[in-house]
Specification:
By secondary structure, this protein is α/β, with parallel strands linked by helices. The protein has helices spanning 2-20, 26-63, 74-90, 105-111, 123-133, 175-187, 237-242, 247-250, 260-264, 279-288, 291-301; strands at 67-72, 94-99, 117-122, 137-147, 151-154, 168-172, 192-193, 206-208, 214-218, 232-235, 251-254, 267-272, 306-307. The strands form three sheets. The protein has a six-stranded mixed β-sheet with strand order 2-1-3-12-4-13, sandwiched between helices. The chain has a five-stranded mixed β-sheet with strand order 9-6-10-5-11. A two-stranded antiparallel sheet has the order 7-8.
């Protein structure tokens, strides 16, 4: 295509020179020659510009600038991303989503540059992961997408009014999710935490436990599976969904929507530091805040997943 363009432009320049050369005076000949030279020069410049533009487009495609790779948890993150594919396609982007079953590899693959972004975690977990692993991950601009209210679910008991001395309650064992579970247990009056510990709370910060509850610490994904052997379990919203639990119908209590915990545990698009304002990342976060995605979240998850509308 480049050769054809060059040939066409060169032919046009030569045609101009031929027509100008039909004049009878010497000055006309000189003017015609200069015009032909200028036309040829302009044609060459146009051809060079076209070649550079095509090369730039080819390089962008080769570099994958139109492809957005995201590591995600299965539910609800990958499901939400699937709904955003068509929106991004309209903007010229190809969204590729890979599901991970753990909370470590999605961060590692973004840190390494193998993926552009991930969507599975909240801000506190990201900060904790960076501190513990020396990684350099940040929240993308406009990257706070949704939150998943923690809930208390019945195991061997179906009402918090039935709590008895020595009952076991399963809670997540990772630093950030454990604090969130403890704050919810405090919210419903089952325990009391030391003043000021907030989102840094651990089981060692429990100052009052009137029922001598056994707080059984297990991996977050396993809490729901422990329900048959404990009185209650405090479960992340996404893991509740994966195990067929409904926030509206099954949770005995959930986090207050205006509580400090919600602001700390909003789920995010995370990227490697320096990439938070890339055009394709902005396209991704814009799509996830669109009316299409907000409506999908509200209609699909019925309160188990809530679009984030606070400050970014």
């Amino acid at each position: 295509m480049k050769k054809k363009l060059l040939a066409a432009l060169t032919a046009a320049a030569l045609g101009t020179a031929f027509l100008a050369g039909c004049g009878s005076s010497s000055s006309s000949d000189t003017a015609a020659t200069e015009a032909a030279a200028a036309s040829t020069e302009a044609a060459a410049a146009t051809t060079e510009a076209a070649a550079e533009a095509e090369t730039t487009a080819d390089t962008a495609a080769a570099d994958g600038d139109n492809v957005i790779t995201v590591a995600a948890s299965q539910t609800p993150h990958s499901e939400i991303l699937e709904q955003a594919k068509s929106l991004l396609a309209d903007e010229g982007y190809d969204l590729e989503v890979t599901v991970f079953e753990d909370y470590v590899q999605p961060n590692n693959v973004v840190e390494s540059g193998d993926f552009d972004a991930n969507y599975f975690q909240h801000v506190n977990y990201l900060n904790s992961f960076n501190e513990e692993n020396g990684t350099h991950l940040v929240v993308a601009t406009n990257g706070k997408i949704h939150y998943e209210p923690f809930g208390i679910y019945g195991g061997t008991k179906s009402s918090l009014d039935d709590v008895a001395d020595g009952d076991a309650i399963a809670i997540p064992n990772d630093t950030t999710n454990e604090a969130r579970a403890l704050l919810l247990l405090q919210q419903v009056g089952l325990i009391k935490l030391a003043d000021g510990v907030g989102v840094n709370a651990t089981v060692n910060d429990v100052t009052e436990n009137p029922h001598n509850l056994q707080l059984v610490e297990v991996e977050a994904a396993q809490v729901a599976k422990q329900l048959p052997s404990v009185a209650f379990g405090v479960i992340n919203g996404n893991y509740a969904l994966e195990n067929g639990l409904s926030v509206q119908n099954d949770a005995l209590a959930t986090e207050s929507a205006d509580g400090d915990a919600i602001q700390q545990y909003v789920n995010i698009i995370a990227v490697k530091d320096g990439n938070q304002d890339l055009p394709k990342i902005k396209a991704l976060t814009d799509a996830l805040h669109s009316d299409t995605i907000v409506n999908y979240i509200n209609d699909t998850y019925q309160g188990a997943v809530v679009p984030y509308e606070g400050e970014q």
